[in-house]
């Protein structure tokens, strides 16, 4: 009996010690915004990477690819998960269960090469490991070396101790490098020393952090829920800056015009209040939500552009079964919608910026041969469709119902289509002249407009009787949606790249046969859909796709992180 009592006491003592250990080692989430510099161009937080991984593994596409990738779902052993979250078990499992992650872009370095502007982002991955540095260091050093080998190939790596524990890998004779730093339970890995240093200084309080931005706190509190997998934010000033870089692309202005960029940035800053992003698991995929916050007066002036009318089912006969992207504009009156966009911009800007933005707005229709939008849109009725027929071309075709054909013909003939620049044709059987820059085709009360090379691809598909069938999933989804603007895009290439990259990170390359099999398995899941609406605080976009923006983040591991943003 005495032995039994002693055993029970020891068992109770063991249970109490284990409970105390679990309690002492529990993790309390911290606000990662405290570790990100206040002037970060982009801030993204993932408070539970394990939840993100599970959400991706539960998507229809990942399951469809499983016979080829041979990937196994994460362990559902609750006891093992509890142990890992308490810091017990292999360090990889512990870090995966306990860590919080944030991605920050701290700067964009631009360089001109002729008429091209190349932008190289400075970014850093922040991890709050909730685990002591002495335990995480070997894993972090190994991860940095493997990442450098994956991104750059052969690299020279060295370790050093200073205000933190550092590991740096670089390419011999080049500027490209990966830097990792361990500061207590925090780990930072970046592609420049400046990116890493900025995050360390924000954490230590010697540099302002992005948590000081009241707009970030406001949108995060209103958008983030228990189901949210990720949150992202771009401040008003940085949204305006990014717009000032992208806008010249539409205006066909060469890079390096600092005066124009400054004017665009200042003007956009009077309209935009920031951009926010969230992601959650839904419908066998990932749903990304974006909020483009606008000034209240701008929201009011935009309402006519989002007033919808009855659907026109006949327009689908001019949409090929296969295409690269399709956007459907359902504004009740296209001309009124255009005027609302124009007035919303002019409301907040002085005369010169308003004229500049008006020119920018007009430039968006120039690729379709439309130089006078106010005149042309008056002759058209909803819906208006912009269709990119193939990945082989960059441009799109505009499709719309015509309400005043004689007036539209006169307008086209007097503007872009005059002389040898373009020509008007009749019917989808028409043979276009490849020497012409633009072409217009009138067919059964509708018009197709665009660059001749794009029009040729579109007409060729339609002539093969490849117009959309009644049971097409995209057509059915569009009929069920109440959004004013709908966009469908072929994501097949991005899906293949994401899965292939994940496999390579795991040390495995897919064979040519496996890649072909993967392509076949993804065919039924290749399109993403985006709905755009006007909310009370700005423009809201909801995108449903296989992996959401998580697949985009993987692209930042590209060996050449420079991106062409202007030509």
Task: Write up this protein.
This protein is an alpha+beta fold and 567 residues long. It folds into 3 domains: 23-212, no CATH class; 226-294 and 543-558, no CATH class; 297-490, no CATH class. It has 20 helices and 20 strands. The chain has helices at 2-24, 49-57, 60-69, 78-85, 91-98, 133-152, 193-204, 214-223, 236-251, 258-269, 296-302, 334-348, 351-363, 373-377, 405-414, 452-463, 473-480, 492-505, 512-521, 550-554; strands at residues 42-46, 100-113, 116-128, 156-161, 165-170, 177-183, 186-190, 230-234, 272-282, 285-294, 325-329, 380-388, 397-402, 422-426, 438-443, 446-451, 485-490, 527-534, 538-545, 563-566. It has a 20-stranded mixed β-sheet that branches. Strand 6 and strand 7 (186-190) form a beta hairpin. The radius of gyration is 27 Å and the shape is globular. The model is unreliable at 14-24 and 559-567 (pLDDT under 50).
